[in-house]
Design goal:
Structural class: mainly alpha
Number of helices: 9
Radius of gyration: 18 Å
Shape: globular
Strand content: under 5%
Distance between the termini: 32 Å
Largest sheet: none
Length: 192
């Protein structure tokens, strides 16, 4: 949606964002197990089994609807603007879980997570733009924007509230980045 508002190729960006999120979904459990070692809340396979249904179930339901009930699929597709409210409710619930931890841990617990998230966000957008060539906007958005509900759910399901602070902070950073892009794009060019 942001890419379309900025005049880019929204179709390419949507496929690229989906692809990068699927890769992140598959790699996160293994990375978490590697980073936490024996303290990990399960093996990479166990962690992956917690995350895969969140990705595969909606995809399978969508594919089945398109194949078995195309009229229903079209009806749902026309309701996409309303799905924003559902996304917002889900994000609020997941963010509240992370905020509950933050309230107990104190503000000092947020700072390293926020700094990590901000650094990763800026790096992701810049690297994506540099790699993108003619599709710099789309590539930057694809690498920088993450599925916020998936990232937060994955952190909560696999690592608990402390780890959820990084995706919650990342969500704030990538939405701030998008807001700045949209704001700059919406301004008239300076007069000479």
């Amino acid at each position: 949606m942001v890419v379309a508002a900025l005049g880019g190729n929204a179709g390419f960006a949507a496929v690229a964002v989906l692809g990068s999120n699927l890769i992140a979904c598959a790699l996160f459990p293994a990375l978490l197990a590697l980073l936490q070692g024996p303290d990990a809340p399960g093996s990479p396979q166990e962690l992956l089994l917690r995350v895969v249904p969140v990705v595969l179930t909606p995809w399978l339901v969508a594919r089945l609807l398109v194949r078995l009930r195309p009229a229903w699929a079209m009806l749902l597709a026309r309701q996409m603007d309303r799905s924003f409210l559902l996304w917002l409710v889900g994000l609020t619930v997941m963010s509240a879980s992370a905020a509950g931890y933050l309230r107990l841990a104190g503000l000092h617990a947020l700072l390293p997570h926020a700094a990590t998230a901000a650094g990763l966000c800026v790096l992701s957008f810049i690297v994506g733009r540099r790699m993108g060539g003619n599709l710099a906007l789309e590539a930057g958005q694809s690498l920088g924007q993450k599925n916020t509900a998936l990232a937060t759910y994955t952190a909560l399901a696999c690592a608990g509230p402390p780890a959820a602070l990084v995706p919650v902070c990342y969500i704030m950073c990538h939405n701030l980045w998008n807001a700045v892009q949209l704001s700059v794009r919406g301004r008239p060019p300076p007069r000479a």
